[in-house]
Amino acid sequence: MYNAVRIAYQILANNGVLLIHDHLKPKPAPVEIAFKNTESQKKFFKFAQEFRPRRIEYKEKNQRIKLDIADAVEFFGKYRSSPEDWGESMEETHLFFTEEDYQKMAHRTGFTIENVRKLPSYENKWYESAKGEIARDIEFTFDIECSLIQLVLKK
């Protein structure tokens, strides 16, 4: 992403504008999840082993898994992947940068931030359905936030 923003800066005319609309990675925070069945537990361990964008660090304690919230939310996002889509989903992340990361990247690449708008969590049927399905198999007590950010960057 950094290279894409750097290249966009290079090819934009003076006063050109770059718009970014993307998912936000939550700020680091430890959370715990517990599995209600062996299938969901196996799926987590498979996810932790096969996820390519970053290493998933976790600790097992008293039948619970302690990990960073961004990794838990990423797992939840992959949880409903079909076996046919699993391999492809292990290659992608929807939670790469925090709001601060985006702001640092903008400044490092030479852009001026004209506007930043953080959008609330999803409020749609797909998200609520996914959240309900996950809760049937996995116990968690934290809010699954999937915030979006819109940035207007000017050269």
Characterization of this structure:
This protein has one domain (2-154). It is 41% helix and 26% strand. The chain contains six helices and seven strands, in the order αββαββαααβαββ. The mean pLDDT is 88.
List keywords for this structure.
155 residues; alpha+beta; 6 helices; 4-stranded antiparallel β-sheet
Q: Would you kindly provide a brief summary of this structure?
A:
This protein has 155 residues and is of the alpha+beta class. The chain contains 6 helices and 7 strands, in the order H-E-E-H-E-E-H-H-H-E-H-E-E. Strand 3 and strand 4 (64-68) form a beta hairpin.
Shape: elongated
Strand percent estimate = 25-35%
Q: Tell me the number of helical segments per DSSP (H or I, 4 or more residues long).
A: 6
Number of domains: 1
What percent of the residues sit in helical stretches (DSSP H or I)? 40-55%
Average residue-wise pLDDT: 88
Any low-confidence stretches, pLDDT <50, length ≥5? none
Report how far apart the termini are: 17 Å
Order of helices and strands: HEEHEEHHHEHEE
Structural class: alpha+beta
